[in-house]
UniProtKB/TrEMBL annotation:
Residues 551-575 are annotated as: Disordered. The lineage of its organism: Eukaryota, Fungi, Dikarya, Basidiomycota, Agaricomycotina. The chain crosses the membrane at residues 142-163. One of its GO terms (biological process) is protein quality control for misfolded or incompletely synthesized proteins. One of its GO terms (molecular function) is metal ion binding. It comes from the Eukaryota. The keyword Glycoprotein does not apply. GO terms for cellular component: mitochondrial inner membrane. Its cofactor is Zn(2+). InterPro entries: Mito/Outer_Membr_Metalloprot, Peptidase_M48. The keyword Nucleotide-binding does not apply. Residues 293-542 form the Peptidase M48 domain. This is Peptidase M48 domain-containing protein. Keywords: Hydrolase, Membrane, Metal-binding, Metalloprotease, Protease, Transmembrane, Transmembrane helix, Zinc.
Amino acid sequence: MLRPLLRSSPSRISSPLPRRYSHILASKRPAGDTRYGIALPGEARLQGRPLIAPSAIQVKRSFHATQRNQLGPVLPVLAGFLKASTTIEIARTAARIALTFVPVILIKNLKSRKELRWAEKTGKTDEARKELVLKRIRNRTILFHTLLFIPVLLFWATIAASLERTPLTGRWRLILLSPEEEEDIAGQLAGPGWYQAVGEILSQEGPPQLVSPSDWRFQWVQDTLRRLEYAIPVLQREHELVPHWADCAGEEGEVPLPPPADFPLRPRPRASEYLRRFAELTAARTVHPAPHALAGPPYSLLLVDKPDAANAFSYGFGPDGAGGVVVFSGFLDEVLAKHPSGEQVQEPQEESSWLTSAFRGLLGISQSPLRAHPQPTPEQTSQLAILLAHELAHLVLAHHIETLSSGSIIWPGIVSIVTDVFRAILFPVTMLFGPFVNDALAGMGKVGSGEFAKLTEYCTSQTQEVEADIVSARLLAHAGFDPRHAVHFWEERSGRELARTMECSPAKAERILNEPESTSLVRRWMGETHPMSYTRVQQLKRELERWERERADARARHLQEDLEHEREDQAQGPA
């Protein structure tokens, strides 16, 4: 029911970049357009030679959340094979095989040593027999260490292959999915797949009421989202595109710019590209692997007419609209009521046939009969941008893929391996009481695995929330919004969960929608939301303070360089 509606939405409206990025993408807005409280300049023209040719920067899906591996020519090939969801299952199978034969080897070695002790005690020592028994003990010991070494080596090699740094922040994380598996996930959500998946989440409380794409509220949210999206390509080449960041300190109404990130957004080659690169390197030729295009703008958007829900969430991963943001109208109502402008904008009434009206009723699209709507102020647009930038940061950093990998592959596999080890150790005891005790231990392992998965999911989610706040400040700055306003925005919501991210698990999304005040065991262990909200605000303040420190250091370095150049010029002048 959602796909016909959402695929027939009007063309997306582009929003301009700030003036300092006008050489990246020229605005297509007519001059003097001030819709939604945003002063949109006319088609920007570059004064003088541009820093980089405009054709060099394109808004496209050519980045990925994982930084390229910088290992030797052989290790990347092995890492390409090990970085897959099936590898940890192979390690688990190898561990089960080892645990099956290890007790047999230990028992046989125990019997062999008992035989040697008995022979020495009775004096019936046969040197040939003794040499044969010792040889068998040595062979079994080698086999014992080999059986234990293979699964351990395979497990840690898999963990090392999936270890990567999060872009823009540099946090170490584990994503045990190959590029091909990620593309398969993105392909399932591309196009109408995202709307279908989000529709299933929203339908848990009944058919959702969607705001029409022709509604002014939808256009306001969409324009703000597109304006933030245009800042994403800058995150790939901040050193080149924003060399003047130290001069933008946020004085006299100017937006402060962040220092270039040490870990920019960069593409990652495929496993097959690693093989091609290895072949080229053996032939003493330089080759640059072609990156796989994933996870970029434009993102999908849904506006749900739900006045009692003042929040938003992001969902999905991949290009072609496989990732997107869902905003509830309650948040817009809250923002519009906080800074009322008093100005009204008149729009011509849309003529629709009775057939269109009937389809709107069947699809659950609400349409306001009023054609006059309030004019959003810059303050209101800034608050909307802060919320959208937070959710957009989750998509840019591929947090949904990280949660899917850790919650569905890595931690369940680790818990399963540990459970198998304990069952193998306790098997000599449990075998005396029959198979039911062993089955009970297996059941307890499954229950513990579920609770442990919830615990790790909660901890990962909180880390991602802090990280999204930090990256959203960078997005806001490059899009022309003052990131310092985000501190006050989140401080006002320190006691509420306004913008919690729903990861790739529909079960978690449903839990957040239906049980916003969850009192699960995990939350009682880790604390309620207020301490976490305080931590988020403090981390965001520290990030902005770090910008100021690095800006001061950069200015000091520039001043020192200018003084040295002046001394050199003065020294060369008389000569």
